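so my prof wants the structure for this chain in the C-alpha cells format not the other one, which i didnt know existed until like an hour ago. anyway here's the sequence
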Amino acid sequence: MLIAITREVSESIQDCQLAHLPRATINLRRAQEQHRQYENYLAELGCEIQRLPGEPELPDAVFVEDAALVVDELGVITRPGASSRRAETLSVAKALDNYRELCYINPPGTLDGGDLLLVGKVLYAGLSSRSNVAGIEQLQSYLTPHGYSIETVKISDCIHLKSAVSQVAEEVLLINRCWVDPGAFEHLELIEVDPSEPFGANALLVNHRVLYPLAYQKTLNRLEKHGLEVETVDVSELAKAEGGVTCCSLIFRG
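here's what i got, hopefully its the right format
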C-alpha cells in the first residue's frame, strides 16, 4: 500500500514564497477544490490519503514534499532553504514517525524535498537556492549505508530540481533541458517538454501511471505518444504559488 501524506491548502497561501514568478491573485476556494481533486486522483491511483490539517500561519505548507524524503529504510526530515518554511517540518515529522526511523538535516545544511529525485537507488540532488552542499552531504551520510548513491545536479532559472526534471516511467524522465543539464541523466531515457511549456517538466509517477497538470497540453501529447498512461489534473491556482503535482504530496510504501 502506498501512503500519500497531503495537507490542506493554507488560508494564507496568497503570502507564499515566490522565486521565479510574479505574484498573482490566488483564488483560495478554487485552490482548495483543485487540491481535493488532486487527492481524489491519488486515491484512484492506489494511495491511502493521510491529510494533515491546514497551517493558517504557514502559506506554503500545502507543499509537503519539501519537508521530507522517505525511502524504504528511513525518513529524512529536511531543513527548508526558506526560513519561513522550517516550521512545516514539525507536523510532517510527527506523521512520519509512525512509519520510519527519522533523521534530520541540521544547520548549516539546507534541503528541500523538491530538489530530490530518486530513480531506483540513485538520488539526484539539486543544488539550488533552497538546497546547499552541506545539506546534500548530510543526506548522503544517511543514505549511503543503505546502498543509495547521490548525484549532485546544478539547476538554473527554476526553484527546484523537480521543476526541471521528473520521473514518468521506470527509467524515463521528463525534462526541460534549459533548466538542467541532460548530461546528468545520461543512462536514462529523456522526453523533452514542448519548448512553449517550460514549466511542464513536473509530473508525478504513481503505480506506473502519470499524474500531470492539465495546462501543458503539448507536452501531454508527447507523453501519450511515448505510450505512457496519463491522468490530468487542474492545479492552475497552486501553480501561481510555484507548486506542481509532485510537491503536494509525500508518497511512500507503508
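also thought this was worth mentioning. The chain is about 20% helix and 25% strand.
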